[in-house]
Amino acid sequence: MKFKNIESNPILDRLPKHLRQFIKPQNYEDYTAIDQAVWRYAMRKNVDYLSQVAHSTYMDGLQQTGINVDAIPNMYGMNRILKAIGWAAVAVDGFIPPNAFMEFQAYNVLVIASDIRQLEHIEYTPAPDIIHEGAGHAPIIANPEYAEYLRRFGEIGCKAISSAKDYELYEAVRHLSIIKEAPNTPQDAIDLAEKKVEDLQNNMGEPSEMALIRNLHWWTVEYGLIGTVENPKIYGAGLLSSIGESAWCMTDKVKKLPYTIASTFQNFDITKPQPQLYVTPDFAHLSLVLESFANTMALRTGGPSAINKLIQSQALGTIELSTGLQISGVFTNMIEHNGKVSYIQTTGQTALANRDKELVGHSVLEHADGFGSPVGKLKGINLAIEDMSPRDLRAYDIYEGETVTLEFEGDIIVTGDIITGTRNLQGKIILISFKNCTVTYKDTVLFEPSWGQYDMAVGKEVISGYSGPADLHSFDLITHKISSTTIQEEKSPEKLELIELYKQVREYREGTNQTVSRTKVLEQLVNRFPMDWLLPVELFELAKKGNENELCDSILAHLETIKQNRPEVGHLIDDGIKIASQEIAV
User: Fold this and answer.
1) What pLDDT is recorded for position 337?
2) d(C-alpha 582, C-alpha 1), whole Å
3) How far is the C-alpha of 107 from the C-alpha of 184, rounded, in Å?
4) Rounded Cα distance, 168 and 171, in Å
5) What average pLDDT does this structure show over 553-579?
6) How many helices (H) and strands (E) does the chain have?
7) I need a labelling partner for 122 at 20 to 30 A (CA). Which of 97, 333, 342, 475 fits?
8) Judging by DSSP bridges, how do beta strands 255-258 and 276-280 pair with one another?
């Protein structure tokens, strides 16, 4: 398929439909000259500073991934260049659900929030934006070891089971990030949104797999340091893209700790600078910690805890039995016996699969109202059904046309007429279908003949449980409803006038309009927009390059006035002047 404004490539072509619902056009023409100036300032400042403190991959990666310091990256160009290192990029609207975000990574696709922060938030924004995504994430994936870690993280992370509260927190954080970045949001609205996030964070209960792996993501992909605790370098995208926090994190005020699995339990506050950071000795160590965490997930542990996690999630998930049979649905009940699963139950649409492919005749149409089945061995028989040879099955009357009573160890009794069995590629029986079937647990009837055909899963244990369906085609996954969208600024006539001044200076610098009078632009700034600081810095850079000393002095005098009236931007002005005054290899 073709994506608007994006040159398609084999990586994007592989994306499943349920991920494509999150992709939006970049609409490059919507970026204003002020947006371009914000990108340019942030990148020039970053490159100047990060050339000293970032991992060596960063500078090379800027070139390899097509990130231009002077202009916001165009998705079309980025995809053309990323293709060479086996990756792609797509634009989205702010935060997307964590499972979807990680699944994109599993497909080697960078998710880039294409909006850009306001000038007022140039140092840091809680909302994902193109400075964070494009300048932070993209350059580091030029390192093959790190790129593989990112892909593997996505592959494991998208299987992590969330809790019902996780999604509520995601929506609250998304809302907060949108209104904090939106122009003219009343402070009381921000305070209310921040309180909601704080209240949710303080009442999450036992952290879910998604909450824990999100911590790992934060302390590595977003805020990771590499090297030694005494002399670390930056590789985390949140630090690489924050011109304030990248300097702050290198001071003694931020505690540096060796990166271990313990960081899984260290929560973070997206609205504040981080008080501690973790240092990995190398990128390979990241994968070791990730695998250690994966070993604790239901994906690998299975058993009753996997079912419990899925029940608590109240969302679509999958279990896999020892035969390879996969059951996908919303799990609502489980019966345990001696610490093992003896019966599982889903409610609503359910599908059965093997090797991630739906079994013919076992779609959500056949199992529209749910699916229940015993799990485990038969009482008094050491040999599990799945391990029985055809002769064994015959001996126990588990055979086509026979009426049989199967009594399982967990007091589940299945009585009915066997219709047929379904086997996997290895020849193991994975499903037995009955007619005239009754299933009971002690005095409780779990299935009765009037309900139709009964399909009994075969498996002595649950070996895996994870988020989402086994076969992506089994369910309608095009259901995501974005509760709130990024708020676009309604530009006043005054703002449009200021944008026009920025545009004139940009065109002059690029050589497309040499008739622009920079002295006149300065006069208009002083008269009409006396507190705007970024455009005077850009004018100073041009005057400095042209050895126009008189104009330089006028601009510096104006900037001093701004610093007196707006001391909070004084360091930004000083840094801009410093960068403009030196030759920087960018």
Assistant:
1) 95
2) 46
3) 38
4) 5
5) 94
6) 23, 17
7) 97
8) parallel
Per-residue pLDDT at 529: 95
| DSSP symbols for 413-446 | EEEEEEEEEEE-TTS-EEEEEEEEEEEEETTEEE
Q: What percentage of the chain carries pLDDT values higher than 70?
A: 93
Residue-wise DSSP of 354-404: ETTEEPTT-STTTTTT--EEE-SPBTT-SS-GGG--HHHHHHTT-STT-EE
Sheet with 255-258: list strands edge to edge: 232-234, 225-227, 276-280, 255-258
> What φ, ψ does residue 208 adopt, rounded to 5°?
-80, 170
**CA dist., res. 37 & res. 502, Å (int):** 8
CA atoms of 241 and 52, how far apart (whole Å): 15
In this structure, which amino acid lies at residue 232?
P
How much is the pLDDT for 148? 95
Q: What is the pLDDT of residue 488?
A: 58
Question: Rounded CA gap, 363 and 470, in Å?
Answer: 12
Residue entry with tokens 């805890």: 305
What's the mean pLDDT in 84-110?
87
C-alpha triplet 7, 13, 15: angle, nearest 5°: 120
Q: Which two tokens stand for residue 306?
A: 């996997």
Report how far residue 534's alpha carbon sits from residue 537's, in angstroms, rounded to the nearest whole number: 5
Mean pLDDT over the full length of the chain: 89
CA distance 149 to 105: 10
Decide the pairing of beta strands 225-227 and 276-280: parallel
pTM: 0.85
In the block, which residue shows the tokens 């920079």?
Answer: 518
Cβ atoms within 10 Å of 448's Cβ, excluding its own: 13
Whole-number Å distance between alpha carbons of 538 and 440: 78
Cα-based distances in Å from 126 to 132, 270, 344 = 10, 6, 42
| Amino acid (1-letter code) at residue 140 | I
Phi–psi pair at 322, nearest 5 degrees = -60, -20
Q: Is the pLDDT of residue 480 over 80?
A: no
* Encoded tokens for 432: 């037995």
pLDDT band at 307 (very low <50, low <70, confident <90, very high): very high
- pLDDT at position 489 is 59
Average pLDDT over residues 64-93: 85
> Do 132 and 238 meet the contact criterion of CB atoms below 8 Å apart?
yes
